């Protein structure tokens, strides 16, 4: 039985990943969904999962990933094998107007998750990033993970910082 903590699991991409986990592993997966339920959360995204697996294989935790005590408690109480971090502030224009929420969620939140993963000896940590960390592409070409980072907004810079933190751990 795989036990996975998914952050940002009420968002579009995170919730689709949770659906993928249950479609792929069915009765062989337990998912702990951590989401702070900000503007991009949509409970309806996982209603069918909650109805089918809630309480036994699917648990929802309304928690901010910056809350080290809450994350610590979840990891103490459940045998988590992997963390997949989808949680993020992601609205580019809003990041230009006020970047604090982006730094908190995308950088401090990721650092909190990494510290807790280290403390609880969780060896698999998947950071979901964005191509925006590489900057503007232009009319031709492609980015790879080996491309130099060149973020052009506070959002992209916060995701690049998170990626660097993950790499450093």
Key terms:
5-stranded parallel sheet, 5 strands, globular, 6 helices, alpha/beta
Give the strand order, joined by hyphens, for the main sheet. Answer: 3-2-1-4-5
How far is it from the N-terminal to the C-terminal residue, by CA? 26 Å
Q: From the alpha-carbon coordinates, what is the Rg to the nearest angstrom?
A: 16 Å
Q: SS-based structural class?
A: alpha/beta
Count of individual helical segments: 6
Low-confidence stretches: none
**Main β-sheet, in a few words?**
5 strands, parallel
Give me the count of strands. Answer: 5
Q: How large a portion of the residues is in β-strands, by DSSP E? A: 15-25%
Please, what is the average pLDDT? 93
The geometry reads as globular
* Secondary-structure element pattern, one letter each: EHEHEHEHHEH
* Residues in helix, %: 40-55%
What can you see in these coordinates?
The longest helix is centred in the middle third of the chain and has 20 residues, at 100-119. The two termini are 26 Å apart. It is globular and about 45 Å long. The protein has helices at 12-25, 47-53, 68-77, 92-97, 100-119, 154-168; strands at 2-7, 29-35, 58-62, 82-85, 124-127. A 5-stranded parallel sheet has the order 3-2-1-4-5, with helices on both faces. Helix 1 links the parallel strand 1 (2-7) and strand 2. Helices cover 43% and strands 15% of the residues.
List strands and helices in order, with pairings.
Blueprint: E1 2-7, H1 12-25, E2 29-35, H2 47-53, E3 58-62, H3 68-77, E4 82-85, H4 92-97, H5 100-119, E5 124-127, H6 154-168
Parallel strand pairs: 1-2, 1-4, 2-3, 4-5
Helix pairs in contact: 3-5, 5-6
């Amino acid at each position: 039985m795989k036990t996975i903590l998914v952050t940002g699991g009420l968002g579009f991409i995170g919730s689709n990943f949770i659906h993928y986990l249950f479609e792929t592993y069915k009765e062989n997966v337990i998912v702990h969904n951590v989401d702070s339920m900000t503007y991009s959360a949509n409970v309806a995204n996982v209603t069918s999962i909650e109805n089918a697996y809630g309480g036994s294989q699917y648990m929802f935790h309304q928690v901010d990933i910056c809350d080290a005590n809450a994350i610590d408690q979840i990891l103490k109480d459940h045998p988590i094998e992997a963390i997949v971090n989808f949680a993020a502030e992601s609205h580019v224009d809003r990041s230009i107007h006020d970047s604090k929420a982006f730094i908190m969620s995308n950088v401090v939140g990721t650092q909190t998750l990494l510290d807790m993963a280290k403390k609880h000896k969780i060896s698999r940590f998947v950071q979901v990033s964005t191509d925006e960390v590489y900057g503007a592409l232009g009319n031709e070409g492609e980015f790879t993970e080996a491309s130099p980072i060149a973020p052009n907004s506070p959002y992209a810079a916060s995701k690049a910082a998170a990626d660097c933190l993950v790499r450093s751990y």
